[in-house]
Each structure stands twice: as structure tokens, then as C-alpha cells.
Please model this.
Amino acid sequence: MKKIMIIILTLTTLSACKDQKKGKETAKPEIVKVNDDDIEKAIIYEANIRQYSKEGTFNEFTKDIPHLKDLGVKILWIMPVHPISETKRKATGNKFTSEIEDENERKKYLGSYYSISDYRGVNPDFGTKEDLRNLIKVAHEHGLWVILDWVPNHTGWDHHWIKEHPDFYTKNRDGEITDPLDDNGNPVGWQDVADLNYNNPEMRKAMIADMKYWINEENIDGFRCDVAGSVPTDFWEEAIPQLRVEKDIFLLAEAWEPALLKGGTLFDMCYGWDQHHMMVAIAKGEKNVLDWDNLINDLDNRYEHDDIIMQFTANHDENSWNGTVKELFGDADKVMAVLSYLTPGMPLIYSGQEFDLNHRLKFFEKDQIPKEKGDYYKLYSDLKELKLNNDALNGGKNTASYERLNTSNNENILAFKRAKNEDEVVFIANLSNQEQNFKIDFEGTYKIFNNGQKMPLNKGMAMSMKPWAYMILEK
Model:
């Protein structure tokens, strides 16, 4: 009996060890949840899957997620992943592909990402849904959140709602479904999509159900909502509480309207269009630092303290339609990139910016970003260290303070202090194309960021800065 008991005990022990080993192999990695603390230091990256690699696939992008983590990226915003409508598919030059007779020429044009034929489907050009699931899994394993670009204002003309639920769409006097129109009933230029009718409660339910699908079935962490301000605010008031019941999510509105962020219950973040346009105007010599000051004061009155503004020098629209960073900012490109990190809010990196992207990516055709590390990779790596390790650059719902510092040349010299807890960062920059001499009206003992050299500041101290030069100081 004793021998039998020993054998049983041995077998039980071996079985337990086997189960433990099996459990270890199948254990899922811990997924970092969306939370306010991480948002304070977050950097967001806009992923253009089509143009990110030669292959233009989810799998090729997934390989580079570790390098994005090295740049401090916390939030991956992936441009629309859905199938693109064939009907009224757009080509370069404001043409439809149906107007192109040559078949090989016609195949070059892949259509707009924002002309969706199936909200729950995946564009086969990018890969399979399983490939996307793997991308999300790898991002989560590296502690990144994934938000999908959602297009709620319109669908492509191939969407099944067109035939199954024509009442989901806006119609003209003749009862025909229309493309999006302005307030005067004129087309806005998006003829490749059909405008959705938000007066229909059933359409609203269907939209919310499709958004819930991606949260519950595909484990995404939120949405960037295209032209969110063109969708009635009361839809967001209806939809967002339902979405947040499913999971803690992060929501970015392609909009500026404060009502979309009001009370901290709707969107978390909006676009810093005003700051972007002001930076472009300053770089072109059309505005100066006093105009920047007026804008900051206006924004302080316009938004609530816990509203987050996304700061950027490029995104897919700016790059493809308005110009590259060099075209928009010229020699001011680096200082404006730094300003986008240091001003209150969350900085954005668009696909290719980390690799010194200097051409306009094609919108309707296959293109490719560069993949060689240059000046910007080093700059973003340095700024990441500052952003992650210094509370004075917190830019979330409990943002660090912003204090304008006076100089004798406030028209051309931007100087401000960010502070939170025991941390302080001072930014001084010459935002003009001429060398500037000035005296400062503040004091403190700091070290120069990235070299550790001490930099005492005294009131009345004289300084000189070359065009577009800047200095970052840490307490």
C-alpha cells in the first residue's frame, strides 16, 4: 500500500508540474489598460498601413511596433482598415476609376481609405482579419493601445446599407441618396461616399453595434472619429456612454468643438488645428509670437482643464494635401516639432516623420515612406526621454501648468515654463527668420536638456539666438 501511495503521489506531482508548464505556456501577457496616468505622458502615432512599407500590410507594420515603443509611442492610431468601395472609387486628379479606360492604369488607384464598404470587414490589400488581430496582440504585448480610425459621417456606395437600408442615408428632393452636402446644400467634394442620416434612430443603433463589435470581438482600445463635428453631438452623447460600458477606451475627435469634450464624458482629445495653423503662419512670417500668446489665452478660455489637444506638425491630410513639413515650415521645422511636444497636449507622429519624410504621400495610390533613421529619429528619441521622465510635460487630463515668461523681445522670442509636482521645464525659442537679441525677465537654476550643463538664468540677462533656434532647460 505504501508503494502504491508513493506511485500515486509521484504521478500527481508530475501531472501538476505538467499543468503548471502548460499554464505558463498559454498564459496571456498582461495588457496595459487605458488609464489617465499613462495618458499624461502619451505620444500618439498615426499608422498609414498602405504607405508604411513596400508591401503595405498589417504584418509588415507589426514588425516595427518595437521601434515605435522605443520612440515612446503609447497610442497607435491606425487609419481605416476596412474594405474600400469599388463604386465611385476615386483616383488622382478628382476622377473616378470608372472613367479610366486602361485596365492597368485603373488598377493603380486604390481609392480613399474613408470610403468604407463594410464596417466589420478588413481591406484585403492590408491582409486578413487574423493579421490585424496579431497586430493588436503585439501592440498590447508592448504596452501600446490601438485605436481604429472610424468613419461615422458617411459610407462608400458599396456598403450593404445602401440596398438593405436606404433610409439610413440622406436623400435629395428626388429621393436619391446624396454625397455629403454643406449647410447650403452644395457638395463638399466627397462624391465617392454617401451621407448618413442621423435622424434615423435605427441607423444610430447599427452604427453603435458596429463600433461595439471592434471593442468586444477584436479588443481595440478606442477610436479616432473622422469629421466628428459633422455628426450630431447628441449621437455622441448617446453612443459614447454605451461604448465605455464595454471597456475603458480612448477617443480622439477629428474636430475642434469644445462641446465634444465637455464634462469629460465624451471625447478625450480633439485636434489642435489652431495651434498647427498658427505654427505654419509663424514659420511663413505671417504671424509672430504675440499672436501665439493670444491664441493660447483664447484656448485656455475655450476648453476645460481636462480637455486634451493633439499637437502636430503633420498628419495624413496635411501631408498629402497641404504639403510636407519642409513645405509648410521651412527651416522652422525642427523648432515647431519641439514646440508640439512642449506645449500642453499630446504630440502626434505621422507615419514617416520619424524617418525624415519629405514628400507628399499619394492618397489614392500605393506609395512608401522612407525607412532610414535620420535627424528626426534622434530628435523624437530625445523628446521621448523628456516627455516620459518629466512631469512638467504632462499633457493629459491633469496637465502641467503653462506660464508665459517675459523677455524684452516678446514679439519674436517665445519663452514659457511648464511645471508639475517638483518638475519644471523652460522653453526659449527664436520664432523668426532673423537673429534676435533680448533680455530675460525671469530667473532660476537649470540644466540644459540632453547635455546636463548648468544654466543659471538671471533677470536682465542678455541672450542671443539664431533664427529658429531653441533651448530646453530642466530644473
